[in-house]
UniProtKB/TrEMBL annotation:
Domain of life: Eukaryota
Coiled coil: none
PANTHER family tied to this protein: REVERSE TRANSCRIPTASES
Source organism per UniProt: Hucho hucho (huchen)
Biological classification of the source: Eukaryota, Metazoa, Chordata, Craniata, Vertebrata
Name recorded for this polypeptide: Reverse transcriptase domain-containing protein
Amino acid sequence: EGRARGAADGRLATFLDFSKAFDRVDWNFMFGCMTQVGIPPEFTRWVRLMYMDPVVSIFINGHKAPPIWPNRGVKQGCPLSPLLFVLTIEPLSEMLRAKDGLGIPLPCGYWTCGALFADDVTLFSDNPACLVDQLEIVEAYCAGSGAQLNRDKSKTIVLNNQRPVGGWPGLNLLINLDEVSTLWRDIWTHWYKLPWSLKSRVAPMA
């Protein structure tokens, strides 16, 4: 069972910062994700070959430094790397969605728990207790994937003009909506109250 929730504590948006997100990808976890989503074994073997015993050499002022043998991270400059990274962070999204009651309710009756764009992850929380549950899931994901959450650089804002009560889950309270520009607040308030369906709100504009 999740912790008791209520909007009275203040709904939150938390912007997570992962330390060296692309460089910390665990290869075994990455290959496991490829298998889990049904990527053909032959293609996975080709990707494994790309990551087998890599050696990196750095030239400094024309001199070759001693070789480095990386053991994690996706390859820089490789067109496949962004897709591989997305595969490795998708389990975090699935873990957050799997637990009922996390996130904030939408007028249509659905809940949204966050938004992910590559390594930019935003959590939406109904109150601080909900955020604590979400952060526990994030830490569990980090333990299995090789990711590392940087709590010092992760920031939280309050979405409904209320300061959280009953304790704070350990992230930095950045600002509340009183300190956000009037334009942004007006746009958010107007958009949220429009009598549209969720589909019409997120559908691409013509």
